[in-house]
């Protein structure tokens, strides 16, 4: 019998608590589905039955099949009926029906540390009414695994998108701009992170003018975001199609092409591998066999494993400021080790920094507060940390940090609160850097670990 995802996660946590160096690993699945939630008078989507009933059926099937991370598009005026019958513990709040909302929502078995909605910079009404609603994409940093003591976690950045539709020149230009906007956002906010992007791209590889989705692929764009499409990987042997083979609805096989796409990449922190790809139409039908949406749902199952030489803790603080990550710098160093720790703090935690033994300097936050530093000996490692958070102007901030070395020496900055968490490196590992969000202060912070 194959262990469940939750058993895999539990085993991973047990290994961590035993303080052994076994790699955390597991499985999770995703689903992308355009739920045809435009008001009936605007678009009936040629779907039998009434939209309220169909939306409720979609929600119940989400719950029945216990899918891990579901992205929905066109989730407009029938949103409440989907959520009424679904049972996922973590769900985004709707941004509204037409014309106020983007129609993008996520239902998940995993919590997230950050969620953000982004509107497209460019839209086109050349072939329809794409500018009627604030279409765009969402970004969330999802915790696919956590430990009970906060010390170790695995995060993947999930993007949900719905690009401009149509085939006129202005539509194509808008859609290309949409994809470019996502790529730029990934380059800024997902540095060093594993990423899964999926949703309704309104694009097909077999349409020569749809160049945007090709630019996502590592095989097609060496300077792009470095993504893989599981459909191309698992169904087409890595070959990008040039001839049209459009799916029926429901799809009769997995070889045909739809506009709903999935892209993914690994990172030094989390390795992802797509294992299963299918159009999940058979599990999303009405009792009489009719479809529930005018789009085939897309299902992918992934395996994942924590990095062998870099890992991270859970986050502390609030989701504000600009994302930063020391992962790219640390991944380029074979044996990173801090030589000097530097903190800045006063009433709150203003800045964190360290210098590695090879001279690499890593610094985040502002210049306020009082600076304190600690030089580590040649065989002395940073092995424990404490972070305390509190409220400032109605927002959660990090107020205090303390480092403890393998020699028992400490360094602290900021003001301790009653809401504190401790972070402990596994035996044989050390804290070597940071990931989080900053501005004038340290808004959100997690620690990066490497072997000693």
TrEMBL record:
Cellular component terms per the entry's GO annotation: cytoplasm
Protein's UniProt keywords contain Acetylation: no
UniProt keywords, alphabetically: Endonuclease, Hydrolase, Nuclease
Keyword check for Hydrolase: yes
Pfam families recorded: Exo_endo_phos2, Jacalin
Domain of life: Eukaryota
Listed SMART domains: Jacalin
Record-level GO BP terms: phosphatidylinositol dephosphorylation
Gene Ontology molecular function: any one: phosphatase activity
Domain Jacalin-type lectin: from-to ranges: 321-451
Alphabetical list of CDD domains matching this protein: Jacalin_EEP
InterPro entries, per the entry: Endo/exonu/phosph_ase_sf, IPPc, Jacalin-like_lectin_dom, Jacalin-like_lectin_dom_sf, Sph/SMPD2-like
Protein name (database record): Endonuclease/exonuclease/phosphatase
Source species: Corynascus novoguineensis
């Amino acid at each position: 019998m194959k262990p469940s995802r939750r058993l895999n996660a539990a085993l991973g946590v047990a290994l961590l608590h035993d303080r052994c160096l076994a790699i955390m690993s597991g499985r999770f699945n995703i689903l992308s589905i355009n739920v045809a939630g435009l008001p009936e008078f605007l678009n009936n989507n040629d779907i039998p039955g009434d939209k309220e009933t169909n939306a409720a059926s979609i929600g119940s099937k989400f719950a029945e099949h216990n899918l891990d991370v579901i992205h929905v598009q066109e989730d407009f005026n029938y949103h409440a009926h989907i959520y009424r019958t679904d049972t996922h513990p973590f769900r985004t709040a709707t941004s509204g029906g037409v014309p106020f909302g983007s129609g993008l929502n996520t239902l998940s078995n995993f919590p997230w540390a950050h969620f953000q909605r982004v509107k497209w910079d460019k839209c086109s009404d050349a072939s329809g009414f794409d500018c009627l609603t604030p279409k765009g994409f969402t970004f969330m940093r999802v915790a696919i695994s956590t430990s009970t003591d906060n010390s170790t976690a695995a995060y993947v950045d999930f993007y949900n998108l719905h690009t401009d539709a149509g085939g006129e020149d202005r539509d194509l230009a808008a859609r290309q701009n949409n994809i470019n906007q996502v790529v730029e956002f990934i380059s800024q906010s997902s540095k060093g992170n594993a990423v899964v992007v999926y949703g309704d791209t309104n694009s097909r590889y077999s349409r020569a003018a749809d160049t945007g989705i090709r630019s996502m692929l590592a095989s097609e764009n060496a300077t792009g975001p470095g993504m893989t499409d599981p459909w191309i990987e698992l169904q087409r042997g890595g070959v990008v199609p040039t001839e049209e083979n459009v799916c029926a609805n429901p799809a009769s096989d997995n070889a045909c092409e739809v506009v709903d796409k999935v892209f993914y990449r690994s990172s030094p922190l989390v390795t992802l591998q797509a294992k299963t790809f299918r159009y999940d139409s058979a599990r999303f039908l009405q009792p009489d066999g009719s479809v529930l949406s005018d789009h085939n749902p897309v299902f992918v199952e992934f395996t994942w494993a924590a990095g062998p030489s870099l890992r991270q803790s859970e986050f502390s603080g609030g989701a504000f400021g600009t994302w930063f990550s020391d992962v790219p710098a640390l991944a380029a160093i074979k044996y990173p080790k801090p030589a000097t720790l530097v903190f800045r703090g006063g009433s709150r935690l203003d800045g964190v920094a360290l210098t590695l033994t090879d001279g690499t300097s890593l610094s985040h936050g502002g210049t306020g507060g009082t600076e304190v530093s600690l030089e580590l000996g040649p065989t002395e490692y940073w092995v424990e940390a404490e972070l305390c958070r509190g409220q400032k102007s109605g927002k959660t901030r990090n107020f205090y940090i303390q480092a403890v070395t393998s020699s028992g020496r400490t360094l602290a900055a900021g003001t301790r609160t009653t809401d504190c968490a401790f972070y402990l490196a596994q035996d044989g590992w050390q804290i070597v850097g940071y990931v989080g969000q900053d501005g004038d202060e340290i808004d959100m912070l997690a620690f990066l670990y490497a072997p000693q």
